[in-house]
Amino acid sequence: MMNRFFLVVMLLFGILSCATTDLPPVNELSSLQLQEDERRLWNRSAEEQKRLDHSNYLYGDLVLTAYVNDVAHSLISEDIKVKGLTIEIKIIKNPLLNAFAYPNGVIYVHTGILCKMQNEAQLATLLGHEMTHALYRHAVENYRSMKNTSAVLATVQMASIPFGVYGDLANLLGSLGAMAAVTGYSRELETEADKVGLDLMVKAGYDPEESTRLFEYLKKDIEEQDIKEPFFFGTHPRLQERINNYNQFIMDSYHDKKGNKYESRFMANISPLLLENALMDISMGRFSSAHDGIERFLKIEPENARAHYCMAELYRQKGDKDDREKAISEYNLAISFDPSDPRPHRGLGMIYYKQRFYEKSKQEFERYLFLYPNAEDRGYIEQYIQQIQTKLQEAKQ
Question: How many CB atoms lie within 10 A of CB 46?
Fold first, then answer.
């Protein structure tokens, strides 16, 4: 993987290193005429996106995807499409904090960062930032500004950082995606993306103060939970740069400007994702982050059986003091709100087995198989039941 990645980046370096970096933004052109090196970047983008789109990382909820794209399109004029750049937002199933833009206008947003937002104005802030990278042609400027091989190698090294459980995603990103998602662009280009993105969201009627609040909230979340992430928006220094920039821009231009937040509309669209993202967090052992997401959902739907099941799974897998009792309580709440769901019975069976409450464990496992006769793990659960029967017989002797 590393050799292929290195060759791609060096090829791009050879294509772009001799060109000027003076490029007007798309919105200032009558039509977008791609230069030869820029067209190569667009072609490379299409190849990388094809791998992403055909992977199991793409989040397929059409309602949420349409909503996020509607917000994006509200930030720019319709004539951008006519000029040759189509902005399209796609969502990646990944609990880590990030979003990144390809030069051809396709932007990928992680479920993790969506679930940390509080309102639509914060979403518009993030999208405005990423859209500016495409509108102002930052990808080709970034490559053209690389003056020597060592700069390219440094970028390769950073873009090749292991991604832990989500290592496959790093491989799928390719050179352009990895650089945008991990290292970001130069400080000057990122500052420009902050400034122009803020202007876009304010002109669309959003509250500028929410731009700073988004990154302050992300920074606080990372600090409190001691999260270590390789992605651009998951690192403390990058978030502090965003906070400093937005504070300065608001002070300079929008200190008395008010706008809309659209919290209710945002939560109505994002709430189903909170549980799915929480389960991904649980699978990575990010229990505090998962807990926050489930609690946010339960404030909206306090009697949702699936949410209580997710909370029970969190407590069962975390396994700290008193967590088993909390898990049992949450499983029972899930059953009370949806008696037809077999999953809480499986969880209860596991807990009771570890507590050596074998009769209770056997009852819960049998209830699980009764409600879910075609369970994929039926053989596994039947082995548990057989072990329990053996233990109960030995206890009687």
Answer: 12
DSSP 205-218: TB-THHHHHHHHHH
Distance CA 181, CA 213 (A): 21
Last residue of a domain, one of 253, 280, 303: 253
Residue type, 187: R
Same domain (yes/no): 177, 268: no
Categorize the per-residue pLDDT at 168 as very low, low, confident or very high, splitting at 50, 70 and 90. Answer: low
Mean pLDDT (whole number) for 92-100: 92
Q: Measure Cα distances from 285 to 244, 291, 315 in Å.
A: 31, 11, 11
- Pick from 82, 107, 174, 179: which is nearest to 139 by CA? 179
pLDDT one-digit tens code per residue, 255-293: 999 999 999 999 999 999 999 999 999 998 899 999 999
5 closest CA partner among 173, 122, 188, 166: 173
14-21: long-range pairs with CB below 8 Å, 24+ = 15/40, 15/143, 16/41, 16/140, 16/143, 16/144, 16/146, 17/143, 17/144, 17/146, 17/147, 19/140, 19/144, 20/144, 21/141, 21/144, 21/145
Give the SS3 label for residue 174. helix
Q: Which of 203, 234, 253 is the last residue of a domain?
A: 253
Is the pTM higher than 0.85? The answer reads yes
Q: How far apart are CA 242 and CA 247, in angstroms?
A: 8
- The total domain count for the chain is 2
Q: Are 246 and 201 in contact (CB under 8 A)?
A: no
**Contact, 227 vs 221, CB < 8 A?**
yes
Please compute, for residue 77, the number of CA atoms within 13 A of its CA located in the half-sphere on the CB side: 8
**What average pLDDT does range 223-237 have in this prediction?**
81
